[in-house]
């Protein structure tokens, strides 16, 4: 069934048809009402500062007063105008999509507090990023410098509160009149002002909760489309808002919707019928003297500005610590981090990393084991779609492929053993061809299972360079070779330097630009230099305080290296434990200066 708002929109968008319909329902009237008459009346209203200055709104009011609104609607239908809200799009809901969305929505929505008072709604868009409306995080309006700056706190779905940095990572203020709850009457009123704030949590505390996956291209926010609103009206969880979108007369940079909202709904994320993010709720939309509906900012206005920032949070190309802990510093592993970011792309020639030791020291946690911890940290940041499968390789594993399947199954991705050709059991004594064939079939089965669930599986094979049976070596070589061609599998091979692997070896992600065969980036570990320590400290200082004092930083780095023996400026990796310990007091000072806790 149509409503007044839909008729107002149709009058504004189809003026000629609306005039025809008006004339058709006034056959026996001496003075025929038309849109020109209502435009004149709106001008008078505007000059007196009275009711709505929208001619279409005045027209609908007058037709209702004359009991002609139903006749007008039927006259529009007779001229090919669709009126039912369900006419655009579908009135059916994808149940499976809805269930998946609701399960995720429970975890990525959040509340925003300013100076310990609830202010509005928001949503996680990365492991450490929260998207909300700009006016939600402000005490004062546009153009005013806030001193002191407000204290921003984000309450996540698990109930934990986390401090957000000021100023926002990205911000675009609302219009001057919007600050006073007055909607724009034309696009020029809010030119390049989108009322958006992207907040950075002091630590990526939301890795376990998941986040909104931003579309590559912002969906069109059209009129009469489905809208789902994820908000906290008055700070209360009242469920998912369900409504339709509508155009605002003479405005394209804001739309309205008919979801019932309250104070605190501002900053709530809006999703379309496909459950894609396509805007932020901003406030009420007033028509005349009545708050008739809500107002939202289409994602198409700001999504491109956020894309790079969000991508850096999800797949960072540099990392200075693990899990927010200052005693877990990442020093000298930039190539490994950058290579994971590149391999995480859907389309890339880099299908993983090969970690080779310059000095073979078994049990060195700063080498192979720490590589897995970095991988695990980075995959957690990317959300639940990535699975890390750690597979030890050596003479203690009797059947490497059976072990792979068991570990994949333990992570919730059951993969049955594919039958071998001709019913031959290759486990007993596999010749070279049979072993490689079995490995390839298992890799293909894992890829197929991962694709069905929308997952990507990262295999982390680690082990010594010796003590491996021929069958295990053949399985490993065949499995990795197959994985290089499969879109849902990535591979890290740590150690195992004597194994010959298929594919190209890249010196870095940059070497894999353009068309060509796939392969692994080779990352040599075993030593670090002074510059690696300084890079780590610079990133820490930037994140914790927002600035870098190069002289102090270099002094602290040199103090941490004092007494250690370097050969040609290179220090052995086992010395990293000493360096990390010496840096703790300086890092604690940086946290104190930045007002953050090491929690």
Rounded to the nearest angstrom, the distance between the terminal CA atoms is: 54 Å
**Tally the helices: what do you get?**
16
Main structural class: alpha+beta
Uncertain stretches: 85-89
Q: What kind of assembly state do the chains in view correspond to?
A: single chain
Please bin the fraction of helical residues. 25-40%
**Main β-sheet, spatial strand arrangement:** 5-4-1-2-3-7-6
Short description:
The protein is an alpha+beta fold. It is 34% helix and 22% strand. The chain starts with a helix and ends in a 5-residue tail after the last helix.
Explained architecture:
Helix content is 34%, strand content 22%. The protein has 599 residues and is of the alpha+beta class. Helix 3 crosses helix 4. The strands form 5 sheets. The chain has a 7-stranded antiparallel beta sheet with strand order 5-4-1-2-3-7-6. The chain has helices at residues 4-13, 15-24, 35-48, 55-65, 69-78, 95-108, 176-179, 303-314, 334-343, 365-381, 400-410, 432-452, 470-483, 530-545, 550-561, 576-594; strands at residues 109-114, 117-126, 129-132, 152-155, 161-164, 170-172, 196-200, 226-230, 241-248, 251-257, 269-271, 277-287, 290-298, 321-322, 325-329, 350-357, 386-392, 456-463, 489-495, 504-506, 519-525, 527-529, 570-572. The chain has 16 helices and 23 strands. The protein is elongated and about 100 Å long. Strand 18, helix 13 (470-483) and strand 19 (489-495) form a beta-alpha-beta unit.
């Amino acid at each position: 069934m149509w409503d007044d708002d839909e008729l107002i929109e149709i009058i504004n968008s189809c003026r000629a048809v609306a005039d025809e319909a008006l004339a058709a329902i006034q056959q026996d009237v001496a003075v025929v009402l038309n849109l020109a008459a209502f435009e004149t009346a709106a001008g008078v209203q505007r000059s007196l500062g009275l009711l709505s200055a929208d001619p279409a709104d005045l027209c609908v009011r007058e037709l209702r007063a004359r009991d002609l609104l139903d006749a007008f609607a039927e006259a529009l239908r007779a001229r090919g105008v669709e009126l039912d809200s369900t006419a655009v799009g579908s009135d059916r809901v994808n149940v499976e999509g809805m269930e998946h969305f609701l399960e995720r929505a429970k975890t990525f929505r959040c509340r925003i507090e300013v100076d310990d008072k609830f202010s509005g709604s928001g949503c996680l868009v990365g492991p450490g990023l929260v998207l909300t409306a700009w006016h939600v995080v402000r005490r004062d309006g546009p153009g005013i410098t806030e001193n002191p700056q407000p204290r921003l706190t984000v309450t996540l779905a698990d109930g934990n509160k986390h401090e957000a940095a000021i100023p926002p990572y990205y911000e675009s203020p609302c219009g001057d009149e919007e600050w006073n709850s007055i909607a724009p009457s034309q696009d020029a009123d809010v030119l390049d002002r989108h009322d958006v704030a992207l907040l950075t949590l002091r630590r990526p505390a939301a890795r376990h909760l998941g986040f909104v996956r931003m579309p590559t291209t912002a969906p069109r926010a059209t009129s009469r489309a489905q809208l789902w609103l994820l908000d906290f009206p008055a700070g209360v969880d009242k469920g998912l808002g369900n409504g339709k979108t509508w155009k605002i007369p003479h405005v394209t940079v804001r739309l309205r919707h008919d979801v019932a909202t309250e104070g605190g709904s501002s900053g709530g994320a809006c999703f379309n019928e496909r459950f894609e993010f396509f805007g932020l709720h901003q406030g009420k939309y007033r028509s005349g003297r009545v708050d008739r509906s809500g107002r939202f900012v289409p994602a198409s206005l700001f999504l491109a500005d956020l894309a790079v920032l969000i991508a850096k949070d999800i797949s960072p190309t540099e990392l200075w610590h693990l899990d927010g802990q200052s005693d877990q510093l990442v020093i000298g592993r930039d190539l490994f981090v950058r290579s994971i970011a590149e391999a995480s792309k859907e389309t890339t020639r880099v299908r993983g990393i090969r970690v080779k030791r310059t000095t073979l020291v078994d049990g060195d946690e700063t080498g192979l084991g720490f590589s897995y911890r970095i991988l695990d940290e980075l995959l957690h940041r990317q959300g639940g779609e990535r699975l890390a499968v750690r597979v030890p390789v050596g003479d203690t594993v009797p059947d490497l492929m059976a072990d792979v399947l068991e570990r994949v199954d333990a992570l919730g991705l059951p993969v049955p053993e594919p039958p071998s050709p001709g019913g031959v059991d290759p486990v007993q004594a596999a010749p070279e061809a049979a072993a490689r064939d079995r490995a390839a079939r298992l890799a293909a089965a894992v890829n197929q299972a991962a694709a069905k669930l929308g997952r990507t599986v990262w295999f982390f094979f680690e082990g010594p360079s010796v003590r491996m049976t021929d069958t295990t070596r053949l399985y490993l070589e065949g499995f990795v070779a197959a994985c290089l061609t499969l879109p849902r599998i990535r591979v890290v091979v740590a150690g195992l330097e004597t194994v010959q692997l298929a594919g190209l070896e890249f010196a870095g992600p940059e070497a894999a630009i353009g068309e060509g065969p796939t392969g692994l980036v080779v990352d040599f570990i075993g030593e670090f230099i002074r510059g690696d320590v300084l890079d780590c400290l610079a990133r820490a200082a930037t994140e914790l305080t927002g600035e870098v004092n190069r002289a102090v930083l270099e002094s602290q780095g040199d103090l941490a290296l004092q007494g250690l023996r370097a050969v040609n400026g290179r220090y052995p990796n086992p010395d990293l434990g000493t360096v990390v310990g010496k840096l703790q007091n300086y890092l604690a000072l940086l946290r104190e200066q930045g007002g953050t806790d090491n929690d």
